[in-house]
């Protein structure tokens, strides 16, 4: 069901983008004062913001929490116990911990509610004429270029989580990060476990044989990330 939902959603987005690309000059709105065809860009923004907020809220409130979905992939810091489970939202300061999966649910719920409210606001409230002219809200180039700020912020966050790791980028699904290799994260854990096994009376060969294959593999493929 999850795979089917993602395939259908991505396919719909592809079709929508192609349709809008072909019909880029489509005029869906009319100026209420003159009844002339015109693109009401603030209203278009409100529609997209409302729909994206609804999708964001649904993901956090239903998919991640397991109310209507499987949950998300969670694991330990070393990527050894990964599994799918429902996640409860973390509304306290711990929700800001990038390695706390509860923050994923609470973030999407909060951001979704904000997006829904902001979308409804832009659908129902018209901007003053001075503000409309000052921000060039009727200029499609200005509207599109202003979205760079939002896209840049999202790209900045994704790049950071992929470099340093987070609950949204588990090792089993995305592989070790460069930051983990620079710290010798898996190598230190392997050496620690070997020393503990030796202290328990095991031979060096026995101690190394107790190391999980996943842990050794993560350290091994981390070497190739350097090159």
TrEMBL record:
The chain crosses the membrane at residues 6-24, 45-68, 104-123, 143-164. It is found in: Membrane. It comes from Caulerpa brownii. GO terms for biological process: photosynthetic electron transport chain. It comes from the Eukaryota. This is PsbB. GO terms for molecular function: chlorophyll binding. It holds the Pfam family PSII. InterPro entries: PS_antenna-like, PS_II_antenna-like_sf. GO terms for cellular component: photosystem. It is a multi-pass membrane protein. Keywords: Chlorophyll, Chloroplast, Chromophore, Membrane, Photosynthesis, Plastid, Transmembrane, Transmembrane helix.
């Amino acid at each position: 069901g999850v795979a089917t939902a993602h395939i259908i959603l991505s396919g719909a987005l592809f079709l929508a983008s192609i349709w809008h690309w072909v019909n880029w000059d489509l005029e869906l709105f009319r100026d209420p004062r003159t009844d002339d065809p015109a693109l009401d860009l603030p209203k278009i923004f409100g529609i997209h913001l409302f729909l994206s907020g609804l999708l964001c809220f649904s993901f956090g409130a239903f998919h991640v929490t397991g109310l209507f979905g499987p949950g998300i992939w969670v694991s330990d810091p070393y990527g050894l116990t990964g599994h799918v489970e429902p996640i409860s939202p973390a509304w306290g300061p711990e929700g800001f911990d990038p390695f706390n999966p509860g923050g994923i649910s609470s973030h999407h719920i909060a951001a979704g509610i904000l997006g829904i409210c902001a979308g409804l606001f832009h659908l129902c409230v018209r901007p003053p004429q001075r503000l409309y002219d000052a921000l060039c809200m009727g200029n499609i180039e200005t509207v599109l270029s202003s979205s760079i700020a939002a896209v840049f912020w999202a790209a900045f966050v994704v790049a950071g989580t992929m470099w340093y790791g987070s609950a949204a980028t588990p090792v089993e699904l995305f592989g070790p990060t460069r930051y983990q290799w620079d710290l010798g994260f898996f190598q230190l854990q392997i050496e620690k476990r070997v020393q503990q096994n030796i202290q328990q009376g095991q031979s060096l060969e026995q101690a190394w044989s107790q190391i999980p294959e996943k842990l050794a593999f993560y350290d091994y493929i981390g070497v190739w990330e350097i090159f």
